[in-house]
Design goal:
Largest sheet: 3 strands, antiparallel
Strand content: under 5%
Distance between the termini: 35 Å
Strand order of the largest sheet: 1-2-3
Radius of gyration: 25 Å
Shape: elongated
Helix content: 55-70%
Order of helices and strands: HHHEEEHHHHHHHHHHHHHHHH
Structural class: mainly alpha
Length: about 500
């Protein structure tokens, strides 16, 4: 640490290896803490290291990083452990911009965005927000910590005014301190949404989930109320850093009891509501851990077996805690997962409602993942198209559910890749250049077979092994097909996935 402190005010290209390693490993830890896959963390660390002339070899797991950095003469090894697992899609996006900002600031080309000044201006504004209460600073990254605001800016960040000539200026030196200040602005950025909006997002997503599973208005209303109460409990307890498995189980219990209670209350005035007890299953689906499931599958596709298995185990642990809690509630109130009552509807109306509710479901999960509204809406459109396509081919082409899940995930992956390619080629403005993972995972979370998983655990609790195995195999096949569909989309559209290099 003494070596790092001694080099804080040196240009990073002239700093010692410990200072460079502190930047590389801290950036990797922030990316890992955002919930992204290990292959993306290593990719980001490699790109940052390359801009500073450092080689890095990193072992990235679910909650820790062990990285060895070398400049050809010396070697520094750092180990970072995260206290918990979470998801923050905004941070994933910010870390991409940070990587491009650092590359351009050190005289290299950006990786994620073609416009050289896209990330420069973006990170400048972000840092200004962090420091605005301390001292005003210019918008130009190279001059961020200088008192002379009239100094020349980095190339690409100072477009000429009419009648003025353009002068090529070398990028101002970026110090180790400046880099850590940018990372500070990302690490300590406040969550985008209030507790009330998180509760609303969970309620909307579960009500939408319920319709897509076959529920009607009464089922959706009960799921809306139950999921909102469950998310309120989960958010408050997570804010106190309580054990995730305990919080998940308690949130599920609250959501299920509130959902069932609301139906019982409505049944006093409308007796038909008592036949909609299955709605409590829709009310608990806000706890489905879609990010570790999908990123784990993608890690395995990139031969990061250790991290992939860890994420899969974490997913199973959360699902087990949730489904056991729901089974306990069902056992107490003597409920059975009988499924939703079928009702007839005009095919075009059903198609329209499926698109709307799929949009709402993906939007709700995106908000819970802390996606900015623009990112959440793009993901919601992609998810609405992909999930509506999946449900329609099940209904009209009689496609097996597992194959439909694969095709739905493939469609979501191709749409997200097309969006990113359009941004890269300037067809869409750079501020909409969201990472693929932040668009694809929320869009296919609504395809995760939470109902199947719950039914498997329910029948297991009833010692009905035949029915339990039937639902387990159904759920596993769908779960496996989702990341395979996304991986194939990346293989078809991304050269780095198509070839082993």
């Amino acid at each position: 640490m003494d070596d790092v402190v001694a080099d804080l005010d040196k240009p990073v290209t002239e700093a010692g290896l410990p200072a460079k390693a502190s930047v590389i490993v801290r950036a990797g830890a922030l990316d890992l803490a955002s919930g992204t896959g290990s292959f993306r963390v290593r990719e980001l660390m490699d790109r940052i290291a390359a801009t500073m002339g450092v080689y890095v070899r990193a072992d990235v797991n679910l909650t820790d990083i062990e990285a060895s950095c070398s400049d050809g003469m010396y070697r520094v090894t750092e180990v970072v452990d995260l206290p918990t697992v979470g998801v923050n899609t905004e941070r994933i996006w910010l870390m991409e911009h940070f990587t491009d900002w650092l590359s351009v600031s050190l005289g290299r080309q950006g990786t994620y965005h073609r416009a050289a000044d896209a990330s420069q201006n973006f990170i400048a504004r972000l840092t200004n927000e962090k420091k605005s209460s301390i001292a005003p600073i210019p918008d130009i990254i190279g001059d961020a910590d200088r008192e002379d605001a009239s100094a020349p800016a980095a190339e690409g960040c100072n477009p000429a005014q009419p009648g003025q000539s353009v002068r090529t200026v070398r990028p101002a030196p970026v110090t180790v301190r400046q880099i850590h200040e940018r990372l500070d602005a990302i690490e300590y950025r406040h969550y985008l949404y209030s507790l009330a909006l998180q509760v609303l997002a969970a309620a909307v997503s579960c009500a939408s989930f319920t319709f897509l599973l076959g529920g009607g208005p009464i089922d959706m209303a009960a799921a809306f109320i139950g999921a909102g109460c469950g998310q309120f409990v989960r958010s408050r307890l997570n804010g106190r850093h309580m054990n995730q498995f305990f919080v998940t189980a308690l949130a599920v219990v609250v959501a299920a009891f509130v959902s069932i209670g609301s139906l019982r209350l409505l049944g006093m005035f409308y007796p038909a509501a008592l036949a909609h007890d299955t709605a409590y299953i829709g009310a608990i689906l806000f706890v489905v851990p879609g990010f570790p499931l999908i990123t784990g599958g993608l890690d395995i596709a990139k031969l990061d077996i250790s991290s992939g298995v860890q994420r899969a185990v974490y997913f199973l642990a959360i699902i087990t805690a949730a489904t056991l809690a729901a089974w306990a509630v069902a056992d107490v109130v003597h409920l059975t997962p009988g499924g939703f009552a079928e009702f007839s509807m005009n095919p075009w109306l059903r198609l329209t409602l499926r698109f709307i509710t799929a949009f709402g479901g993906v939007w709700g999960f995106s908000v819970l993942f802390n996606s900015p509204q623009r990112m959440a809406c793009v993901a919601a459109v992609i998810g609405a198209l992909a999930d509506t396509f999946r449900l329609e081919i099940i209904d009209y082409w009689h496609t097996p559910i597992e194959a439909a899940a694969f095709l739905g995930a493939l469609a979501a992956g191709l749409l997200a890749s097309a969006w990113r390619i359009a941004v890269r080629h300037g067809l869409i403005e750079p501020q909409y250049g969201f990472p693929r993972i932040t668009l694809t995972v929320p869009s296919i979370v609504i395809m995760v077979p939470g109902l199947y998983m719950y039914q498997a655990v329910y029948y297991l609790g009833q010692l009905n092994s035949g029915a339990a195995l039937n639902w387990i195999f159904r759920a596993v096949l769908v779960v496996v097909c989702l990341p395979i569909g996304l991986a194939l989309a990346r293989i078809l559209t991304d050269r780095s996935w198509r070839y082993d290099v």
